[in-house]
Write a structure and sequence with these properties.
Elements lengths: L1 H10 L6 E5 L5 E5 L6 E4 L12 H10 L3 E4 L2 H10 L3 H6 L2 H7 L20 H7 L18 H16 L6 E5 L5 H10 L2 E6 L2 H13 L6 E5 L12 E7 L10 H11 E14 L7 H6 L9 H5 L7 E8 L1 H17 L1 H5 L4 H20 L2 E10 L15
Parallel strand pairs: 1-3, 5-6, 5-8, 6-7, 8-9
Antiparallel strand pairs: 1-2, 3-4, 9-11, 10-11
Length: 393
């Protein structure tokens, strides 16, 4: 009874949109200002400690534990989440005060290992990523493109924007398995340096460079970008795909300062990152279970740093719908590989990753997040092509 009271108080904060909740005792309650478009079904009563002040964290944890399921389009769930994601709702809901008032405080805390995302290993990721092992947004030119085609197209599209010239020095911050650095060397004959913090990615990328005989053009390093010494090396072009989101809010200025220091005058920088529409703390469930320490900045927030470090905007492109489709592909691959995954991880892990992949896809389709490619120059470059036509040839 006490848990239901707490949950009802929580659900009443979502007054935009419309949904219903079917509680474990069969009671169904409608919430919001519109007709319900989805249901939240409780299979059993959660502990009072499972009901957190953050409704998104509460629902995410309950789903992973098998306490609830959603009936209806997940896009509607995510859209409702974004419609109601203001700070006033949290300020109006004081779960601890409610618990004290009811004279029951359950101090037991259950949490999943937040480090699992980084310790899963390449055997897991290789099951559902494409063979480039690209763990970032792909670029679909047609509906029929395979994930592998789309990932190669993303790499090619990114390299075209950089307008690379033979013998230039290219730095890839967060190079993953090195496909972008390798393709840059193959297609443009540039000297590409890729850095990663993953030992497995480093070893895999180095092996591929050796297999292709590209040691004279591609240098893969197991290194932090902050440890690069701008007095010892400078780059004509720098690219960073899917890494900016892991920098953290307070380190954003330091990131731009480092890129500026490593980039030659009039050099070009391509920043590819997930960004939000409004400044807000990271989704509590994602921060706890998927990407601890991550922060998704807004485009507005990112742009404010550029003048301070003499970066000029050349071109900005949204790949929002491309990322939704990428995540759909990943989830479909994930589902096809469930027999193998079930031998590696338990049911809660599988539900957690299913929610992560499908929830993110919905967030890109109907929520408040986007992904942008921002093409920047250090200082003024008057020698660039006058139009963006070269990027799409």
């Amino acid at each position: 009874m006490l848990t239901k009271t707490a949950l009802k108080t929580l659900f009443e904060l979502w007054n935009e949109g419309g949904f219903s909740v079917v509680f474990w005792d069969g009671e169904e309650v409608c919430y919001g200002s519109e007709n319900p478009t989805f249901k939240i079904i409780f299979h059993r009563e959660p502990k009072l400690s499972d009901v957190k002040e953050d409704i998104i964290l509460t629902l995410g944890e309950a789903y992973v534990k098998g306490i609830i399921d959603f009936v209806g389009p997940l896009d509607d769930v995510i859209a409702t989440m974004f419609k109601n994601s203001d700070d006033k709702a949290k300020a109006d809901f004081h779960l601890q005060a409610l618990a004290r008032q009811l004279k029951e405080v359950d101090e037991s805390v259950e949490s999943l290992n937040i480090h699992k995302h980084y310790d899963l290993g390449n055997n897991f990721f290789s099951l559902w990523l494409d063979k480039t092992m690209s763990y970032s947004c792909a670029y679909f030119k047609t509906k029929e493109d395979t994930l592998y085609q789309a990932q190669l197209q993303k790499i090619d599209h990114s390299l075209k924007k950089l307008n690379l010239k033979e013998n230039e020095k290219l730095l890839d911050i967060g190079c993953g398995w090195g496909w972008l650095a390798i393709r840059a060397a193959q297609q443009y004959k540039v000297h590409a340096t890729g850095i990663t913090l993953s030992k497995e990615q480093y070893e895999g990328a180095c092996a591929r460079v050796r297999d292709l005989g590209l040691e004279n053009l591609v240098d893969i390093r197991l290194e932090n970008y902050m440890d690069l010494n701008p007095k010892q090396e400078q780059f004509d072009k720098i690219v960073s795909i899917g890494m900016f989101e892991h920098v953290g809010k307070k380190y954003l200025p330091l990131y731009f300062a480092k890129v500026k220091a490593l980039l030659k005058g009039n050099g070009t920088f391509l920043l590819h990152s997930i960004m939000g529409n409004f400044e807000a703390p990271t989704n509590a469930w994602m921060k706890t279970y998927i990407f601890p320490g991550g922060y998704v900045p807004t485009l507005r927030e990112t742009m404010q740093f550029l003048p301070e470090f003499d970066f000029r905007v050349v071109h900005i492109e949204s790949l929002r719908r491309h990322y939704a489709k990428t995540l759909d592909c990943w989830y479909n691959n994930f589902q096809q590989k469930l027999p193998e995954i079930e031998t590696m991880y338990d049911k809660q892990f599988i539900r957690m990753w299913s929610l992560y992949l499908t929830g993110c896809a919905s967030a890109f389709r109907v929520g408040g997040i986007d992904v942008y490619q921002c093409l920047l120059t250090k200082g003024i470059d008057n020698n660039r092509p006058m139009t963006a036509e070269y990027m799409y040839k």
